[in-house]
Amino acid sequence: MNILITGGAGFLGSHLCGRFLKDGHSVVCLDNFITGSRDNIEGMLDDPRFSLIEHDISKPICFAEKLDWVLHFASLASPVHYMKYPIKTLKSGLNGTHNCLGIAKAHNAKFLLASTSEIYGDPMVHPQPETYWGNVNSIGIRSCYDESKRGAEALTYAYMRQHNLDVRVIRIFNTYGPNMQFNDGRVVSNFILRALSDKDLIIYGDGSQTRSFCYVDDLVDGITILMGKDYKQPVNLGNLAEYKVMDLANIIIELIKSKSKIKFEPLPQDDPKRRQPDISIAKKVLGWQPKVSLRDGLEKSVEWFVKELKIKNECAE
Length: 317
Ligand code: NAD
Ligand code: UDP
Prior knowledge:
Strand content: 15-25%
Number of strands: 13
Bound molecules: nicotinamide-adenine-dinucleotide, uridine-5'-diphosphate
Helix content: 25-40%
CATH architecture: 3-Layer(aba) Sandwich
Low-confidence stretches: none
Shape: globular
Number of helices: 9
Structural class: alpha/beta
CATH class: Alpha Beta
């Protein structure tokens, strides 16, 4: 198959590019490199089945060669980044999704939207099933992201209903692992990088807020299984193990044997207090559930960050 992945040079996109090439497909990676990196796809550039298009998906684009699948992952994805570029975030989610849906329709391709647990906002239902409609502040500082993804879902189902497009929607819960950007600002990369240099870990709020962390390989497995199933409704993909941010900080400090201390800063507006996926649908429809424990996933991630830091330091010398 010929597969278009927008945001293919990003954290999740690059893992998907790698997986689809490994599975024997051709991959068109589209990225504007706003947060993505060439390093993530360096090893694929020489593969004749891999092509790279530098383009902003919020602007239209046509493809001459037939596409079989269109996977839309392009978006500012970390709170630090999307709050810095709220308009670009809305454009990737709304115009970008519209453009990708148009491409999928023109090629009669299967379309997958990378949606997010953020569409549940600061949830009043716990854990969050796909049937929960969410609690989003539509004018708050996270709304550029949350509402862009809610709008993207609405666009996706409008194309399904009006044009009979074959769609898949995944709601991804906090995922981590190799290829995360160093300046990503998300909690796992921040804590690992600071712990590796014995700097203070900064917890926003009192650290009692929870997240459920999924290792990237598990997520990629879930996505590839879903693409092979005829299930068009949204599917939560995430790990059930729920941790307080404070506990995550302590686990990382202990794992790295770091001398870092913990410091506290104010909790940003609308930061969700609890988050845990209900993955009953993924279990039933896909026969999928995460296999990698937080400790194992963190070990693999730390190993990767250590290797990358070494390369960066050698290049700087
Ligand atoms: P990332 O920042 O590493 O990757 C996003 C990629 O999209 C980057 O390569 C970036 O350069 C590219 N991009 C952004 N805007 C673009 C545009 N307008 N045109 C072309 N390329 C553009 O983030 P990620 O964690 O890999 O996230 C990928 C997708 O998964 C996003 O849609 C995000 O909303 C979704 N998601 C991720 C998580 C997670 O925990 N990682 C959770 C929920 C949802
Ligand atoms: N967080 C933190 N310190 C950091 C980065 C994040 O305490 O250095 C907190 C953040 O306020 C949130 C949680 O960790 O409560 C997860 O943040 P992240 O940015 O990874 O993703 P979110 O789930 O909020 O989108």
